[in-house]
Amino acid sequence: MKQIIHYPLMTVVLVGVVGDTAIAQLDSRKTQKQQSALQQLAALETNTLVAVAQTTPKIDQKTALNLVWKLPLVQRKAREIQRLSQGKIKVSAIVDSVPTPTQPYYTVRIFEDDPNNYNYTIYWFRVSSSTGVIEALDIIENKYVALEEWRSQIRRRR
Question: Which of 1, 22, 98, 115 is least crowded, fewest Cβ atoms below 10 Å from its Cβ?
């Protein structure tokens, strides 16, 4: 009789202890996972506070366009083309691209605005959005250079 009562009772106690230990381990793992997730979330929150805005342009698109358009060389070329075409072709300018975080320049294109829908590019310039400094594209070297250097290259190539 003792065996009939003793074995089932021992089995219940053992199952209870093992089960309680397993539940405690599960709770411990769950708590660790929650703490880990909270730490990761906290780390993400601190990383999302990175300043997104770069330096804001000090000059706007219209100013960049006007700076390039008023260059004496651009004005001379515009008058020359208009004179040679007997007023049929005009020279125009357009801002081709605006500053980005990696390229803080306005790109300005000077082109022949032909009424027959031909738009031939004459010059490319870029204007620094923060300083207003103008650089011209040297098409032979395929790089932007300072205006003085560009003017001297034009004189040498003539």
Answer: 1
